[in-house]
C-alpha cells in the first residue's frame, strides 16, 4: 500500500499573517522584540471612533472621515515595503498619558498612536505614521498596480506665512506614502531623474547657541563643512564669546566619503 502526502506550495504564513483578533495583535505588540523599552508593554488597540478627550489629536472631523471611508478596525495588514512579507498597521494607546475630566468623573487617554510594523524576515522595524506627536493620521490601505500603499488623511492649516504656528488646522489633506530610503516618503508615480551636482544644507541663528554652519555634498562623493558660529566651543570657556566665531582648523574641511 502506497501512501501519498500532498503539500501546498503557497507562501508560508508569517507571524503577522497569523494574527486575527485584537487580543492576538495586542499580545504580539506587547511581547515583540522590537519593544526595546516598556513603552508598549501595556499597549491597547483602539478604533479611531473609540478615542475620547481633546488631547489625542483625533477630533470629530477625522472621525467622520474615517467613518466615510469604512476605517472602523484597529489594525490593518499589507506589504508596504514590497518585500513579499506582510506588515502591520495598528492603532491604539500605550497608556503613557492619562487625563481626568473637569468634573473628575471620567479618566481618558491624552495620547494616540498609529504605527507601521515592517517585517524584514529576521527582524521587525517600527515606524510611526503620525505626522507629529500631537496630530493623527487616518490610514487607508490602497493597491496600486498590484502593490500595497498607505494613504493617510490628516489635518493641515491653510497656506500662510504663520499658519503652521498660529492658526487652527481646519482642512483635510491626503497623501499616499511609500516606504523607501529607510522611511515613509510621499508616493511618486512618475519620478524625475536629475543629475544632481550638489546638495547644500544650511542652518540659521537662533536665540541661543545653535550651531550655524553650511554643509555641501557633491556628486563626486566629497563633502565640505563650513562652520560659522557655535560649532566648536566649551560652555565653561571664559573666552566663549570671543572664541565663538574664531577660525579653527576644524571649521573648514573637505572629507572623502567611505
Characterization of this structure:
Residues 239-258 are annotated as: Disordered. Residues 198-233 form the DUF6438 domain. This is DUF6438 domain-containing protein. With 258 residues, the chain is mainly beta. The chain has two domains: 15-186, no CATH class; 198-256, no CATH class. The protein is built from five helices and 15 strands. The strands form four sheets. Strands 1, 2, 3, 6 and 7 form a five-stranded antiparallel β-sheet that branches. The protein has a four-stranded antiparallel β-sheet with strand order 8-9-10-11, covered by helices on one side. A hairpin with a 6-residue loop joins strand 4 (98-100) and strand 5.
Shape assignment: globular
Low-confidence stretches: 1-9, 246-258
The count of DSSP E runs of length 2 or more, i.e. the number of strands, is 15
**H and E order:** HHEHEEEEEEEEHEEEEEHE
User: Can you count the helices?
Assistant: 5
**Average pLDDT level:** 81
Largest sheet: 5 strands, antiparallel
The total domain count is 2
What oligomeric arrangement do these chains adopt? single chain
Please state the CA-atom Rg, rounded to the nearest Å: 24 Å
Note the gap between the termini: 65 Å
State the secondary-structure class: mainly beta
Percentage of helical residues?
A: 10-25%
How much of the sequence is in beta strands?
25-35%
Amino acid at each position: 500500500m502506497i501512501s501519498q502526502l500532498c503539500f501546498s506550495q503557497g507562501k508560508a504564513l508569517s507571524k503577522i499573517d497569523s494574527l486575527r483578533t485584537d487580543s492576538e495583535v495586542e499580545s504580539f505588540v506587547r511581547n515583540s522584540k522590537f519593544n526595546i523599552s516598556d513603552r508598549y508593554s501595556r499597549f491597547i488597540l483602539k478604533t479611531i471612533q473609540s478615542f475620547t478627550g481633546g488631547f489625542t489629536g483625533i477630533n470629530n472631523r477625522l472621525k467622520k472621515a474615517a467613518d466615510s471611508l469604512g476605517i472602523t478596525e484597529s489594525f490593518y495588514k499589507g506589504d508596504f515595503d514590497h518585500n513579499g512579507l506582510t506588515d502591520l498597521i495598528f492603532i491604539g494607546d500605550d497608556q503613557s498619558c492619562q487625563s481626568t475630566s473637569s468634573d473628575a468623573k471620567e479618566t481618558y487617554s491624552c495620547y494616540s498612536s498609529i504605527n507601521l510594523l515592517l517585517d524584514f524576515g529576521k527582524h521587525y522595524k517600527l515606524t510611526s505614521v503620525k505626522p507629529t506627536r500631537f496630530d493623527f493620521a487616518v490610514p487607508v490601505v490602497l493597491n496600486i498596480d498590484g502593490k500595497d500603499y498607505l494613504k493617510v488623511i490628516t489635518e493641515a492649516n491653510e497656506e500662510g506665512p504663520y499658519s503652521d504656528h498660529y492658526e487652527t488646522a481646519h482642512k483635510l489633506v491626503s497623501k499616499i506614502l511609500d516606504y523607501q530610503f529607510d522611511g515613509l516618503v510621499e508616493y511618486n508615480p512618475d519620478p524625475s531623474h536629475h543629475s544632481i551636482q550638489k546638495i547644500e544644507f544650511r542652518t540659521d541663528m537662533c536665540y541661543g547657541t545653535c550651531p550655524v554652519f553650511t554643509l555641501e555634498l557633491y556628486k563626486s562623493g566629497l563633502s565640505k563643512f563650513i562652520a560659522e558660529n557655535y560649532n566648536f566651543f566649551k560652555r565653561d570657556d571664559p573666552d566663549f564669546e570671543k572664541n565663538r566665531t574664531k577660525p579653527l582648523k576644524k571649521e573648514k574641511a573637505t572629507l572623502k566619503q567611505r
